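Progress against Task 2.4 (sequence-to-structure conversion) is shown through the following example record, which the project officer requested during the mid-term review.
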Amino acid sequence: MWLAEDADTRIYILGSMHALPQGTDWDDGAVGTAIDAADELVMELSPAELGAAAAAFRALAPREAPLAIDARLTGRALTGYRALEASGGSLNGDALDDWAVMVLMGQRIAQEAELVPDEGVETRLTERFEAVGKPIMGLERAREQLMLFETLGPAAQRALLRRAAEKADSGVADVLAMTAAWGRGDVAALENVINEGIDAVPAARKAILTDRNRRWSAWAIERMERPGTVLMAVGAGHLVGEDGVPALLEARGVRVRRVQ
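Structure tokens generated for the chain above:
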């Protein structure tokens, strides 16, 4: 967690994990202090948009015409995909766009790693802020977020799907390692994991990470024109590296320091 501040505004910027193991303890200490101090919560999606995400996925995910996974993946990638299906039932990949298959594969791996969305940062923060009547807003809409994937070119989508499928056999271990790195605040380890997965697809990195980080840092700078204390919780991958939100804010002259 980082703190961006000026004379009358504080924005705590918390790196979130969308799903966590049952019983994970993360919202005490400095994070708990920030939660209690904040006048409002800002997340990638508001609670209403989080609720709309599944319907948006169902609307955008289907292909115009089915295409067999066997025609999209070969070798280790196809083996990894089939192993995931064998572990928990069909992913119906033939009927879905490449990006949507990748999303479902990620969800299957998270399930196998026993990561629970109800234990994730967004769910717990929503409960705490709603319990005391503090406002919650979102930086994006669910459909807008999924359109970042939907509008990627075919080559970028296929590359993301292939890389995800090739690493499916180590997916549970990788997810648990990333969760552990997050839990101990190991920014370098998080950055390595994130870069390994997306640096090979520059178009995806630009659309999914860099461009959004720039928009969110611009939002934070604008928000600092008004007094108050804000807790801004976005995926931890958006806060690390030279194009992470804290670094972008510092480059714009905002005072930023890590506080957790």
